């Protein structure tokens, strides 16, 4: 019976992907993409990757929906671009099909059983005091990847801010809505945001032993911040604010500092002090969560509009 | 005992799916966006409530059962507020169209050449 | 029992997909947003059904997150595409001569 469910889910995913691509209008395509992200979350659950499912639901159907809806608003209603070359569409379809076939062939060509380090992780996990192997891999066994990922996230914000007209990236990003928030949106923000912040902190706390963790928590907190902005409950922060910039840097540089301290305490870069592993890991996770939340929120809000003249 | 719990689950989950089906039918068949919002929020909340109620005996622990009830409450709150947001969008669009009609009927003086 | 729960989840998924498909061709963008909300509600129910069926209680957290973030899309839609209200006393669109 579970096979039938998986088959239906796969067919719906294909139909959703076709819907996103085949819908002519940009707005409808974005709405389809939000629904597609939701189905993808279900697919990750069926693959027993609950950590990924949480991320997909938070990013795929939450935050990227906000970004894409904003992009559609910024587009002109009737594009002035000339009609594309008639050869372009079949060519794009052929390239896409070729990539899909190649990926399918690669998956089918995997040796049976697939190569895995899962057993190594399971034997080494007790040393970290963590219960969730995904958090163990992210923050201990492959900590270098996670550190670089945080730096990449910061760099993507730098990329967004580089579009600012102000050379020093001061001022507030443009508002999400052109008019004051309607009463229902304000109500939604007031009621839902406190619950959402609680859920975000819960995911951070649960991440040590159950699915969840810094990225999921940061994404939820960023989404709640955006909800408050859309409901006119908080003002978009000015980007020259020193506290804000310190929050952006806390994750990557805090992690880097712990990494260098690892040489002194554990004799290796990114090593944790013996005996206090879990406490340090949790401190790093809190700093990373803060940075992820602020960075994701600011990426969605866009480049700052320059210093206000008063 | 376990048989009784299973029967309870099946009856309530089936009833919940029935409400989901009614909500979907209403969403598809009712005319006008406002009445569709009505069908969606009413039927889906009851449907979700019945499914949660039916699944309570299957919960692994009391904490899980409490979490399921919390999820239903959160969904109830969110979908009620979302219905208001969507309905406000419909109403604002209608008001705008009305104002536009009035504006077309009597063009303003200052824009005449 | 697990088989029956999977069957119920399949049924819900098909129902939501049917609603989505029929509104997709018939309605405007607001109706499509409503259909996505229906898919979100069905997704919560499906995740709740999968929790005992797969025997993994951490799936409840995904349902919690879905219940929380389903509202975000509607709010973002309203913020991005909400019609701007005409200013009081002035007609919204001045016809060009």
From TrEMBL, chain A:
Pfam families cross-referenced by the UniProt entry: MbhD, MnhB
Protein origin, superkingdom: Bacteria
MrpA C-terminal/MbhD domain span: 11-76
Gene Ontology, cellular component aspect: plasma membrane
InterPro entries referenced in this protein's UniProt entry, alphabetically: CPA3_antiporter_subunitB, MnhB, MrpA_C/MbhD
Keyword line: Cell membrane, Membrane, Transmembrane, Transmembrane helix
Membrane topology: Multi-pass membrane protein
Transmembrane regions listed in the UniProt entry: 44-69, 90-110, 185-208, 214-234, 246-273, 279-301
Subcellular location: Cell membrane
Annotated Na+/H+ antiporter MnhB subunit-related protein domain residues: 187-302
Family, per entry: Belongs to the CPA3 antiporters (TC 2.A.63) subunit B family.
This protein's name: DUF4040 domain-containing protein
TrEMBL record, chain B:
Pfam families per UniProt: PhaG_MnhG_YufB (PF03334)
Top-rank taxon, per record: Bacteria
One annotated GO molecular function: sodium:proton antiporter activity
UniProt xrefs under InterPro entries: PhaG_MnhG_YufB
Descriptive protein name: Na+/H+ antiporter subunit G
Native source organism of the sequence: Xanthobacter autotrophicus
From TrEMBL, chain C:
One Pfam match: MrpF_PhaF
InterPro entries: MrpF/PhaF-like
One annotated GO molecular function: monoatomic ion transmembrane transporter activity
UniProtKB keywords: Cell membrane, Membrane, Transmembrane, Transmembrane helix
Membrane topology of the entry: Multi-pass membrane protein
Transmembrane segments: 33-51, 63-81
Location of the protein in the cell: Cell membrane
Superkingdom: Bacteria
Chief localisation class: membrane
This protein's GO CC annotations: plasma membrane
Manganese among keywords: no
The protein's name: Multiple resistance and pH regulation protein F
């Amino acid at each position: 019976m579970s096979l039938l469910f998986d088959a239906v889910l796969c067919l719906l995913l294909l139909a959703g992907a076709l819907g996103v691509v085949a819908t002519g209008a940009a707005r409808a395509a974005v709405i389809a993409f939000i629904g597609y992200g939701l189905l993808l979350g279900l697919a990750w659950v069926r693959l027993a990757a609950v950590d990924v499912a949480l991320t997909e639901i938070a990013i795929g159907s939450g935050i990227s929906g906000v970004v894409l809806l904003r992009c559609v608003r910024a587009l002109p209603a009737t594009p002035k671009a000339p009609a594309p070359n008639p050869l372009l569409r079949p060519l794009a379809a052929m390239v896409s099909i070729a990539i899909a076939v190649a990926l399918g062939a690669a998956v089918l060509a995997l040796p049976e059983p697939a190569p895995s380090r899962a057993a190594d992780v399971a034997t080494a996990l007790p040393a970290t005091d963590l219960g969730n192997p995904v958090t163990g891999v992210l923050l201990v066994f492959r900590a270098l990847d996670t550190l670089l990922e945080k730096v990449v996230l910061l760099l993507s914000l730098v990329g967004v801010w580089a579009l600012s007209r102000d050379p020093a990236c001061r001022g507030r990003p443009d508002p999400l809505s052109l008019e004051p928030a309607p009463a229902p949106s304000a109500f939604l923000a007031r009621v839902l945001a406190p619950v959402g912040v609680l859920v975000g902190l819960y995911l951070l706390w649960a991440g040590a032993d159950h699915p969840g963790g810094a990225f999921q928590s940061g994404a939820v907190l960023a989404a709640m911040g955006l909800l408050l902005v859309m409901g006119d409950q908080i003002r978009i922060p000015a980007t020259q604010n020193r506290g804000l910039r310190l929050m952006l840097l806390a994750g990557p540089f805090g992690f880097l500092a712990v990494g260098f301290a690892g040489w002194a305490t554990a004799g290796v870069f990114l090593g944790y002090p013996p005996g206090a592993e879990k406490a340090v890991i949790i401190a790093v996770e809190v700093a990373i969560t803060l940075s992820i939340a602020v960075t994701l929120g600011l990426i969605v809000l866009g480049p700052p509009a320059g210093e206000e003249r008063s | 005992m376990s048989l009784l719990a299973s029967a309870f689950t099946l009856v309530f989950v089936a009833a919940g799916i029935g409400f989901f089906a009614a909500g979907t039918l209403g969403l598809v068949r009712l005319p006008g966006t406002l009445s569709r919002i009505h069908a969606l929020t009413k039927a889906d909340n009851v449907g979700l409530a019945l499914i949660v109620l039916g699944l309570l005996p299957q919960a692994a622990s009391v904490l899980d059962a409490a979490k399921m009830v919390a999820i239903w409450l959160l969904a109830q709150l969110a979908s009620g507020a979302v219905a208001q947001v969507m309905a406000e969008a419909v109403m604002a669009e209608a008001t705008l169209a009305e104002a536009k009609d009035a504006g077309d009927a009597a063009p303003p003086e200052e824009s005449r050449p | 029992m697990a088989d029956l729960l999977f069957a119920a989840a399949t049924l819900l998924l098909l129902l939501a997909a049917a609603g989505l498909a029929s509104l997709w061709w018939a309605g405007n963008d607001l109706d499509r947003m409503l259909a996505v909300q229906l898919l979100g509600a069905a997704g919560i129910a499906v995740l709740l059904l999968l929790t005992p069926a797969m025997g993994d209680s951490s799936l409840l957290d995904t349902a919690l997150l879905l219940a929380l973030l389903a509202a975000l899309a509607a709010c973002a839609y309203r913020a991005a595409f909400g019609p701007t209200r005409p200013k009081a006393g002035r007609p919204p669109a001045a016809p060009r001569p």
